[in-house]
Amino acid sequence: MAATATIERGPIDRVMTVRERIDPARRITLMASAIVLLLVLLLLVFIGLNGVQIFTSSGIPFAAVFNTQWLPGDQFVPGEVSFGIFPFIAGTLGVMFVAALMATPLSVGLAIYMAEVAPRWARSITQPSMEVFVGIPSVVWGWLGITILVPFLSHNLAGIGFSLGFSWFAGSLVLALMILPTITSIAYDAITSVPAEMRGASVALGTTRWQTIRHVVIPAALGGIATAVVLGMMRAAGEALAVQMVIGNRPVMPTSLTQPLTTLTAQITLDMGNTVGGTPWNQVLWTMGLVLLLISFGFVLLVRRLSRSRQVP
Amino acid sequence: MSQATSPQSAAAMRRTLHADRVATGVLWAIGIFVVLILGAIILHFLLASIGTMSPSFLFGDPSDTTVGGIGPVLWNSVYVLVLTLLITVPLGLLGGIYMAEYAGQGRIPNIIRLSQELISSVPSIVVGLFGLALFVNATHWSFTALGGALALSVFNLPLLTRLTEQALRAVPRDERDGSLALGTTKWQTIRHVALPLAIPGILTGVILTAGRIFGEAAALIFTAGVATPSHYDFANLNITDPRSPWSPFHSATTLAVYIWAQNSEGLGQFVRQIADSSAAVLVIMVMIFNLGARGLGRVLQRRATGVS
Amino acid sequence: MEIGKRIAAVAVAGALFVGACGGSGSSAPPSVAGPGSVAPGSVGAGGNCVAGSIIAGGSTALQPLVDAAQKAYTTGCTGTTISVQPGGSGTGLTQVLSGGFQIGNSDIFAEEKLQPADASQLVDHQVVRQGWVMVTHKGVTGVTTLTSDQATQIWTGAVTNWKDVGGPDLPIVLIIRPASSGTRATFKRIVLGGKNEAAGTALTEDSNGAVQTAVSTTPGATSVVGFTFYQSNTATLNALQLDGVTASVDNMGNGTYKLQAIGHMYTKGAADGLSKALTDYMLSPTVQNGLVKTMFYAPIGTGPAATPPVVVGPSSPAPASPSPS
Fold first, then answer.
1. pTM of the model
2. Residue of A nearest to C104 (CA)
3. Which residues in chain C touch residue B242, judged by CB atoms under 8 angstroms apart?
């Protein structure tokens, strides 16, 4: 009797018996886990329906929303009033990419350190540190940014353009600190799962530790590292409060690292309380939320593609 | 073939060794640097809260004229946390059991896995908007602790399901085989063998997610509101009365939201002290949750399995 | 199971701990609410407690006043709860329309934001005058007053350095509210005469607190904050006169200080029950001559009710839509 269900690979690879199919425990637990499916559908429905209200119920044309001019008004006057959301999309992507640029070298370096170089006692400090780091709430990062980083920039670096302090750079720096532990822990997992045989083979060739890391371990873990970076970017793109406190919220297309800009999340936070439900101004915020939702879903699919291509033999 | 080190290969070897040493140094520097940043942040908040932090701050009521306290707000944080866990732990447990024990590689489990990843990716402000649409407007509840807890459940549930699944998968096969060899049903095996062994891992995971929930703000601003009664009468046990702190039907500003609200509309002169001290409390709570989860996990592991 | 007993023990200990804290919390001396709070036991509802539980929410500028008033009103009333939420005037109007709030506090007329069909469902209770004051960073010395013209030139970007208005040689940094803010709309209408601000070179911050943080840390910065808020932050902000008139409760009351607007409490349909009791209480002399002035608002006065300066017409081309859930 095939009672050896191999848990590591899932139930036996054959058609279920009737008894298995009607097993009440299986049904109940299946329903519990399928709630997630329901949530995804609900999310899409609610945010989606609200997100298209600006086109369906207020009748604003697409061109007035998909452009670079944010000139909102309580009443839509074509030519004068424009609900262009490109500045926010560009801002979100901008702070996200720069944050990833700042965080990745440090994170990957830290992951390599923890996986390859650190002795046991050092690992027992860095690992809990990463867990605490990732747990620091975003409001705290925002508060740090606005009480320490922004005044520092505007008082000390005004000469190179940071006269305002609030800037793209400030936003990305705060985000970089927030996503650092995320990238580190996933990259660490990727690096430690490179099989010992590969390292052993490299060492047997007489290489130094750094040569092994650089030429064997990192290329083997590259897929996982890429996944880590993308997940970090995802977190950066979705961050609202910390970013809104330090970027200056200027609703124009991003121009320079030293100048303020805006993001989808920041604008939603700013305008949600001041606009009335049912007006185009409020509806475009829901559209921004929908764009955010689609961006994050897109990232998930991207990560899946990356993980699939990562094959450690 | 001569194996002597020619001048070129000697130089190459020196360069390689040099590169190795430089790399090691850089990596050490990175490690120390990051830990120092974390230490600096924690130190900054601890220092900034000297003078404000006291039991009367932690448990007292907010005030407009003095520094006041964060008692009701702290209570709200704990309350929303417990409510969220009450909703998500049973469901997450059951869901994780399904994913680990009954699901295979079929289409439905794959769709469920995809859904889990999709929900985990949603930014918390979008979850807040969803909560606003569903738990505030559609239900006409206005801002409530229950609405906040439900919104938090949206992204906590997939997290817990995955944690339970991982903990169950980590239970050694031999244990299950032994149980099945005694003639038990699958559910009996899960209930009496696999689950108890997985509990340390599950508990650790629950505490870690609790840390995340405690610090969540963006989702709660739109669902649990930003105002809170200035004083809680804990003797009022009537949970249908919105004034009772035990009721889920009143708005519930949590600590993280409170920091944000102080930054926005804090009227007193003590905004900076209140926010700094609240942030210190948050950071300390996160540390307690994280390090506590680690320690607890290790202790339970040792007791349950006899190995440390 | 031993583990189970341990968990239960921890849970019981935790419950006792919480109970002890709760006990100490509720036996702590009542918090001193704010400037002008009515001492417990004095004239509150005056024995006319209306039982019930309502939510009044919306404008953050009105929130301190409404909160203090409800505390005074409900003193000694055991069956009455009034919860005051911030969230913005927009939230106030949205929620009062949808029934989430019983009273919507707003800095602006409903007709300025809502379609006529929706605005007509709301009943306006004009309860107070609130003012705003122009402020600058402490380093902008020598500038104590601005005429409306000077302010317009600064805010539209025509003048970019403080030395052109009598100040130091320092670039002007504009800190503006989001376009959706009632504060910004009021400032634009009253001081700028409807001209557009130079939003492309400004910083945007959405609340009094965020504005104050930005202004106090950015040299050359200027912005507009609520008058009540300014009173708690005189140490970090520099207030400016408008056309030679200092911002003060009296000048708001007699109309000489122009940068002011009416605070509204909207109800859906006529106010009744506890909502009516609260709005009546807000308009009573106790509050108008007491709390209102001590919290740096101005009484509404006895003139005719003000009318909306701007009205949103029926939208084109789609018909007016109810707020989506």
1. 0.84
2. A276
3. 53, 81, 83
